[in-house]
Predict the 3D structure of the following.
Amino acid sequence: EAGVAQSPRYKIIEKRQSVAFWCNPISGHATLYWYQQILGQGPKLLIQFQNNGVVDDSQLPKDRFSAERLKGVDSTLKIQPAKLEDSAVYLCASSLWRKETQYFGPGTRLLVL
Amino acid sequence: DAKTTQPPSMDCAEGRAANLPCNHSTISGNEYVYWYRQIHSQGPQYIIHGLKNNETNEMASLIITEDRKSSTLILPHATLRDTAVYYCIVYTGNQFYFGTGTSLTVIP
């Protein structure tokens, strides 16, 4: 069974630029999550989708971050404009349904200069 | 907000059992204990989870105390590839709250 796929694996941008990350969850998984992991810390949930609907985006900085999962399968997370403090690893995870075990992708490492 | 307390780091000799403790004194009756690990530059990897009973799978064993206020993850025969950060998570059914975990180093 293929795991969660993410791209790109690495991205370097300058502050105030925009960036987008892509995630393809495990086939058949209805729930998709985006996490932010700052160096030395554990992952922090940004947004949770159930199919193509948002379940929880309470920790998403909505002034600059946006995410979508239009067809209920893959998802895109965007940052516009990026700040220095957005430098982090962005992890995507999926689960069969809500409250089920989450499986994580390899992450996208973002460096904002 | 993390609801668990773990030691920041531990060492274990290769081939020996690694016992990683976790305190979760405020856990509620219907909240699960999950364990994940994160090897450098990779995403977190699911290990095991449990509610009340002890659990075992091909990777590890999870021992939960009777009062459910603490648990121990046991890797029965640690290898160098088990060197990673181990996260103990109390799952509220809403979201995972990751703390800073325990950095386990397996020593040859």
Q: What stands out?
A: The interface with chain B takes residues 4, 40-45, 48, 56, 91, 93, 99, 101-107, 109 of chain A (CB under 8 Å).
